Amino acid sequence: MRIHAFHRLYQHRLAQSTKPFIARGSKVERCLYCQVAKSNCLCDYQPDIDSDIAVMLLLSDNEVFKPSNTGRLILDTVKEGYAFQWHRTEPDPEMLALVSNPSYQPIVIFPDEYVEDEQRLIPVDSIGPQGKKPLLIFIDGSWREARRIFRKSPYLDGLPVLSVEPESVSRYVMRRSDNAQHLATAEVAALVFDQMGEQHLSATLAAWFDVFKESYLHSKSRSKSDQQRPVLQAFIEATETRSRSSN
Ligand SMILES: [Zn+2]
Fold first, then answer.
1. What is the pTM of this model?
2. Could you tell me which of 197, 155, 192 has the C-alpha nearest to residue 58?
3. How many angstroms is it from 194 CA to the middle of ligand 1?
4. Banded model confidence at residue 18, pLDDT cuts 50, 70, 90
5. What local confidence, expressed as pLDDT, does residue 178 receive?
6. For a 10 Å CB count at each end of the chain, is N or C smaller?
């Protein structure tokens, strides 16, 4: 299993905090990396695929401690990943350096209806033309927090914004049975990757999200831990089939 920036931020915040953040369902003893019950740990199945994009998560205050967080799943799937704690007046210098690094094309992923300056909105095919690596910035928190972060971060103001196409969202929501109104951060990322033509990355992340959701819900219920997890089984089989055919 690959330890990444989200895990490091989690450990860092944990070491800093004087009073522990009590998440709901905190009676469950969770794996510190995948955040499902230890008996259901998914770390061995973390995806191992390569891609030519980088991802940066900007996390709201206690988001890193929420077991239900899904931004973490994006960094499980995209190997070049960064995770920063959002701060309005004292932004992380490393984050600022990354955003202004000329090797990258930083792009904020956010719904267009909240973008006042329409000139900031870019079409998906304008990504990566100058040979720069796309750096996709996801604001990870509750919807209310995400809007606040988007509005109150001067260092994001000058950056282009890519919005998820409403058609692809509705196609996606229709395909799912739970009919959720707001997509999880990992679901938004899977849609963006799909729009960018990164189908394998998109499908892997969407499948990994389903695997997480299954085991997360499994951890909450009091059912026996030896119960089957069909989504995980299918994920393992698909991964094995792919690695066999590429050998
Ligand atoms: Zn784990």
1. 0.92
2. 155
3. 27
4. confident
5. 57
6. C
